[in-house]
Write a structure and sequence with these properties.
Helix content is about 35%, strand content about 10%. By secondary structure, it is of the alpha+beta class. The chain has a domain at about 25-115. Bound molecules: zinc ion (ZN).
């Protein structure tokens, strides 16, 4: 089973590593889709700048406070996900900044590339593994120690052994 997992992971890392070389957007595809949805809804929200880093964002259901320097919104979605919420998108788009600049670095293309730069190396089958006798010592099974207390006399319910 471990060899199957090893083979699967080798293939997965190799395929994704090749794919990422041709991918040129600053964030992953799923995050790009999330940002596209949020930016489409952002026009329904009105943001007012306070003169520093904060914005008062009001819209149909409620109003929120967005801080672009700290990357926070009072709806807390930005802090939890690391992706600007629709309120933050309204502020960012109003400034003319790219939304991808405000996404957590965990979703960046550079992080994806660094994930797949390392690789798994192929391993031989079990018959080609070195024997412990060839290493210079014989590995013995661990010594068993009798547990303290009186041994159990009744069998466990549903157990395989009878005493
Ligand atoms: Zn928000």
């Amino acid at each position: 089973m471990l060899e199957e997992i090893h083979t699967y992971q080798m293939e997965r890392i190799q395929i994704r590593g090749q794919w990422i070389k041709n991918y040129n957007y600053p964030v992953s595809p799923l995050i790009k889709e999330t940002l596209d949805k949020a930016s489409a809804k952002a026009s329904a929200w009105r943001s007012v700048w306070n003169g520093e880093h904060s914005y008062h964002v009001s819209g149909p259901p409620d109003q929120y406070v967005v801080n672009l320097r700290d990357k926070t919104c009072s709806c807390r979605l930005w802090q939890i996900q690391g992706i600007p919420c629709v309120h933050a998108c309204a502020c960012i788009l109003k400034n003319g900044h790219p939304l991808t600049k405000y996404v957590s670095h965990y979703y960046s293309r550079e992080t994806m590339v660094s994930l797949y730069t390392h690789m798994l190396y192929p391993i031989n089958g079990m018959h080609n593994w070195p024997k412990t006798s060839e290493v210079g010592f014989e590995l013995q099974p661990p010594r068993t120690k009798r547990q303290r207390g009186r041994p159990r006399k009744k069998r466990r319910e549903g157990g395989h052994f009878q005493v």
